Model the fold of this input.
Amino acid sequence: MPYNPSMSSAPNSALSPTSGSGIDADLMRRTLQAMITSRTLENKLSSLYKAGKIVGGVYLGKGQEAFSASLGCCLDQDQDIFAPLIRDQAGRTAFGEELIDATRTYLGSALGPMKGRDGNIHRGRPAERRPAMISHLGTSVSIVAGMLMARRMKKELDGVVGATCVGDGATSTGSFHEGLNLAAVEKLPMVILIADNQFAYSTPRSRQFACESLLDRALGYGVGAVEIDGTDLGACLQGIQTAVELARSGHGPQVVVGKLLRLCGHGEHDDGNYVPSELRQSELGRDCLDLGIQKVIDLGYATQTEISGWQDEAAERVQEAVAQAQTEPKPDPFKEDWRAFSEEGME
Amino acid sequence: MSVTYIEAIHQAQLDLLRSREDVFLYGQDIGAFGGAFKATKGLQEEFPERVLDSPISEDAMVGMAIGAAISGMRPIVEMQFADFSSIAFNQIVNHAGTHFYRTGVPVPITVRLPCGGTPGSGPFHSQMVEALYGHYPGIVVVTPATVSDAYHLLKASVELNDPVVFCEHKFLYRWLKAARISEETLPLGRARISRPGKHATVVTYSAMVHEAVRAANRLAEEGWEIEVVDLRTIKPLDMDTVLASVARTGRLLALGEAFPWGGVTAEIVSRVVAEGFHLLDAAPLRLNARDTPIPYHPDLWAAHRPTPESIVEKLRELLNL
Done:
């Protein structure tokens, strides 16, 4: 493949004191705010699940907020496409999803975007460039590719970027491979985030793939790639902003691998006891939210008092969104139209 | 002058590309090469940006089409063979099929499936897969048996706002000819009486319509009048036409080229028994292909699927002869 300046293999070193120093203060503040809001919401969702108020699963992105929110904030909400996966609450919030969409879908309000027909993180607003994920991993890559190809055919692609997120486990699927290969062949303005969070449910990386770094795979696809410290807000913003700019300026798909650790189970039904304590205590196991707050303070982009204010505000907004969804009507099986087709008479 | 079944499919795609800027074609070898069966011959020349070769990636081909469809386009995806749609199964049934119900946003994609057997094609280039897709909610399944239906139903499929699996039979591609494509057609979702009769009804679809008509012609020499119903689409399933025919004849043979376990013929018998038991003068019968993979050798292949001979035999059983 041609030399790609974005291809680099950054070792997972100690948090760089200088990372993020070139990032716009407003961008970093917005990203941290999304991380705080996401963590606050997810803590609440976990409590609601444990109290039996949420039926089905609750899947959290704890430990992945810096990586996910950085993407949401680096994209342009007015024109870009974002197809999140199960650990992207922070990215969804950063990309402009209203909290009420999350609480309505989790709590089964009939007024939510999925009307109780699908739940938890299987939500989206496809008409607003936010596809609703299905459970089959890797499938979103070709969906985003198609959304971009439609724009190319309609001569509306200029300046648009499409992005999606997967985990390390999803990179083992045929769907991921086919989708990324197609995007590369078409040289689409795409950013693919791989949250290398060490476990796919309970399966460690060593049982998932044999390459040392997922970065090595990008070479085979002929796409740009970079590996970053996914616990470091500054590194995430730098790496992802660059990837988004490269995609937007015609350099084809860009893969960003974020080295991090999932700080929760696969879902809230899972305590994640298979994660060795050495790993939890390693650099990978650091909490990106704590580090992000420290980073923003160290760079002088916000004060502790300001950040406490954001935390209070997030708690208040989350409480409101939960309370509102809880008072709303649930879907009624007798009023449900039970129609899988948009056209009449196809059943 | 005459038009073949494959030429009708080619013509429908050409007319759609010319009349609608939101239509595009995507598939393996469909560009300059014109497709494995030449269904897209010359189309890329006229529409270089809307007739695109894909990698050998059936999952991604359909995923891409879904993404494009929710962004305002009307993709037609060509599977090189229906058999390979198994790789795209997940995107078709779990992504496209669930999308409108889950999100309220329809997915107007048409996936063309060259299906059915031809001599020598073997286990992986001959299968009938319509029952698989019909089983899942949210997917329209179209099975044209005539040249005019190949044309009109393909156009109607692309105009439809929901996902369509378009099962076109390879055996009919060049063998089946019509003087011209008819101006008039039935709407998508309506079955047709291909051959009227009064002693028994054969309900079938796709290439088996022609085998059923051959069988009916042989029995006509003995004075039996067999009615043949061409379903045209298996989802929706036009039970009104089926039940009206059974009401006339009192006897039903459900005929299909697919494997025998479950499937369209089982669905037909089940519905006729449940909805029209009082119309039946005899137990309804089914005739399908055999329950083995589809054999390569032409002699084995010909005995694997229903033939006019085996259909005649089944009809004699139905008529108590």
Summary: The first strand of chain A starts at residue 8 and ends at 9.
